[in-house]
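Repro:
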Amino acid sequence: MSRMGCVDFTEASQLQDELQRLRQANKTSDVILFLEHPPVITIGIAGGEQNVIIPRDILAQEGIPISHTDRGGSVTYHGPGQLIVYPIIDLNSAGLNIHTFMLNLEEAIIRVLNDFSIAGHRNPQYPGVWVEQQKIGAIGVRVRHWITKHGVALNVNNDLKPFSYIHACGIEDKGVTSMRQLLGHEVDREDVIRSMIDHFSQVFDMSIIEQ
C-alpha cells in the first residue's frame, strides 16, 4: 500500500493507468493507494452533466473543476477530508470476479464504519454503503484485462456542501453523510486508514505492506 496525501484527480488517474499496465505485465504486485483529492466533480461512464445542477461558472468560482473519467457510475464529488482508496488488484490471481470484488469493497467499508459505531449497510438498488437513507461510501471501478482501478470514496471529515451541487451518483431522492456528521466530531484520519487496512486484509485475504 502507499499513502499519498492530497493528489490531483487527473494525476492519480494517470498513476493508476501506469500501475494497471505494470500489474498486467506482472511487473508489480497488487497495490492499494490511500489518498484524498482537491475539490473536483467527477463524471463516470454512466453519468452525464445533467446531474451537475449548478452552472460551471459558479463551480469555477468555488474552485471545483469537472473531470470525466472511465470509472463506472455517475457523478460524485471528491474533496479534502474524504478518504480515497484505489486498489490495483489482479482479480484472476485473487480468485475474484467483478461482482465479488464490488461486494468486498462494500464489506470493507461496512466493517470500518462498525469500528466507529456507525451502522453502515448496502442498498440493493445502488452500489456503495449507506447509513439509513444517506450515502457515506461511494464505489466506482474500472476493470481492464482483469486488473482493477479506481475504487472507494469514504466520507470522513469532508465538507458535504458541494454534494448539493450535483445529483450524487445520479440519485435525486437520497442524501449524503459523513463520519464527522454522524459522530458529531472530527475523526482521526489515521485511525480510519488503519481500520481500512485491517479490514481490506481480512476481506480480500491479502497481506498489505506499507511502502
